[in-house]
Amino acid sequence: MVSQATQKLYINTGNLTEWNRLKGKFSQSSKSELQKCVDGTLTAWKESVDIQSLKDQEILTCRHEQFPSKISSDSLNDFEISAKIFALSGKSFDVKDALEQVIQELGITKVDNATLSLPPSVTDFSSDVQDIWQMMEQFVDNGHIQEIGICDFDLNQLSQLHDWSKIKPATNSVNLSTCCVIPPELVLYAKENNVRLLTHADLRDILDADYVKTTLNNYFSSENDNWQPIWVARYTALIKHRGIIKSKGYILRCDRIED
Amino acid sequence: MGILTNGTPLTWDEIKEYITLIKSQGIRQFISLYHRLSNRPNDILKWGDELEYMVVKFDHENKTARLYCEVDQYLDILQNFERENPGASPTSWKPEFTSYMLEASPGQPYLGDLAQINSVEANMKRRRREVIDLLDEDIVPITLTAFPRLGCPNFTYPAYEPDTNKRSSAPSLFFPWEVVGSHPRFKSFSQNIYLRRGSKVAINVPVFRDVNTPKPFVEHLQYGEEAIDGKEDHIYLDATGHGHGNSCLQVVTLQAYNVDEARLLYDQLCPICPIVLALSAASPIYRGFLSDVDCRWNIISQSVDDRTKEERGLEPLKNNKHRIPKSRYDSVDYYLSPEGQAYNDIELVYDKEFCEQLEKAGVDSILARHIAHLFIREPISVFKELLEQDDLKDSDHFENIQSTNWQTMRFKPPPLDADIGWRVEFRPCEVQLTEFENAAFAAFIILLTRVILTYGLNFYMPISKVDENMQTAQKRDAVRNGMFYFRKDLGKGKRFRITTYLNNSPPDESEYELMSINTIINGKADGFPGLVPLINDYLASLSIDVDTRYSLYRYLSLIQKRASGELKTTAKWMRDFVASHPDYKKDSVVSEKINYDLLYACNEIVQGKRQESDFIDNMESKTIDSFSTT
After folding, report:
1. Which of B449, B543, B545 to mutate to test the interface with A (most CBs of A within 10 A)?
2. What is the value of pTM for the model shown?
3. Which domains does chain A have, with CATH numbers?
4. Domain B17-630 is in which class?
5. Chain B residues inside the 8 Å CB shell of A77
């Protein structure tokens, strides 16, 4: 039961590489992968908790306890840790929360690369985007992130960000299936300004309000019309030099929005 | 092919005196190796490929294409850079079984980051360029698995006569002695296989029955006594050169983290072997006839089959120790990991004394059996200079037996004297015409191993079913028509891997079922995930640079389309080319003219001058030569 007192909901899938994900239809997109993982996490979580004890919690965390993602500290050097934050609310304090959650989940002090993905509604280099970037720069200054990058920026947006920022974006990730040919001007700009062009396979609106509503209705049976997805974070811990993904998972947050 | 040291080869009679010495010392060498290196500290991923080229000389006036048997002169030049810059050469060249073949691999191993996969094609292209630069315009290197008119009259330049009069000790109706490569190891092989076996090797390839093909097809009868092992409705071949000279196989060797990971990958890749064999099928024509098979595997298997009549079960055991069901070149008989033991349902032939000796020395019983199984074979090529071995430094006697067991997978212990770890070699792939295709297959295999390790995939099924698949895979158009046993549920994730198989109950038949190659590779909507979707899932989890991702996209697209039948296999393309040739008389005969046109077309395809959109639709990748600054 998600009571009226609960304002924030975190869902944490734990380490997906340990799951049996091959049962049933194999999801082909990250959006459907995320949905499947959320369903799986909530199912496992519901079976393992005493619902009554959660009644009045303001912040509710549903985690898949069976598969923690923590990386042991003595092998940290072997790993390359990446995080992608889908900043669905577009606010810098939410992105800060997301990054902190990832760092905590993995039990590390430093993420090697953090990438920011903005929702499709963000089309220009607004002050909100600047706030987010500055906040991420602070993480770099504090030694918690090695390099920061952006997703799906065109030449215009990328050059604005690059010119304005204190810590320049190290990477810009594009979705090859939606833009099979990358504009040569973008390629040239990236090369000249030391921005690595990478690929991703995600949709920018990886979690929508409708899905949140339906899911909360399925699992928590209460009035859930006013929940909004705030952010989704995906982390990957890759064993460098061996190409094996040791840990991969999603954490997401939804908030109850007051009318 | 094996270790190529120079020296004086022993004759078969001389080898016979040393068999016991070599084998028992080889076992001791393995024991020593195992003790020193089984706990070798953790290794990173390094890997490589090997391509074999046949060099073809065109005569455009007379419309002939012949195998050019004078490549030795170029080998020295090709090896020069590596000799003078050890550890820094982009390419590495070796001689091969015949005097028209060259083998090349990357000079340095590829490493474990994904961007390295994007350098494979470029490195392969560099190798071809190095050879082309040395050759005259009408002489070209081609990566073709089987030369269509190998063994036909005048198939070589210069032309040689096959040795029907037994002047050499490895007579053949079709394969001239001069065509066997000049390195002493190769002639030594041919002779010793013949002498040990007690007769010529007998290769019978089922002929393709076309409208005008003679019924029955009894061509071998024209050759009389010399072709006594020939069969009706088969294309008869009688020399080791037909196999090892026909095989331009492309092999991927990869270094595992430690010995356990090597054993795991060896096992998990076994069921993949027949699938890749069917997908890469590229050899439908033998000795000028269209055959009913698309792959070279059985042909090579028969071409090095040194088993005596006793070992083959044709006579009671008297001089030989074991009845052996397979040639020393054939598919794997035995899984190597504890989890795989329940699936070892073939009765393994192994030397019981060696096995006991290995176990007493602390080698676990699974690995002991594997080594004792390899050691039922006798050495067929021995160099005088290597007879005396220092067990602290040498392992040549072990390597002698190890490297003359040619199986679909090879488990390779580290050498004593180099910083190299436990490795596995994936050996079933037929070589393709273009670098693009060869890189695609290499990428597919390497990515599949990463996916196996990331998700804890489980492909185990009874090894006898893998063998059945191997036979299915070689049939004409197996990729479209064949049904292959494959495991249905690929895993419950890494945690569950070990515990599931600790109870020794035999596996359930419902674990696997017959699937098409298309299902195995591309998956099915509401069932089997498919190998390529699994690879794509893995790739989607990583940030990959755009060039590498684009190349991988193109490579996987080729694999997918070959699997679905949207693109033809090389074998199918060759068959269709012959069938539609104006000179073809629907009698399965591939004449000199057809051969010339076919090879000319192959060369045009490689050079990008000929498009075949139902064979290779798009060869554009963004491969980058990692040695481009040199």
Report:
1. B543
2. 0.95
3. 8-256 (3.20.20)
4. alpha beta
5. none
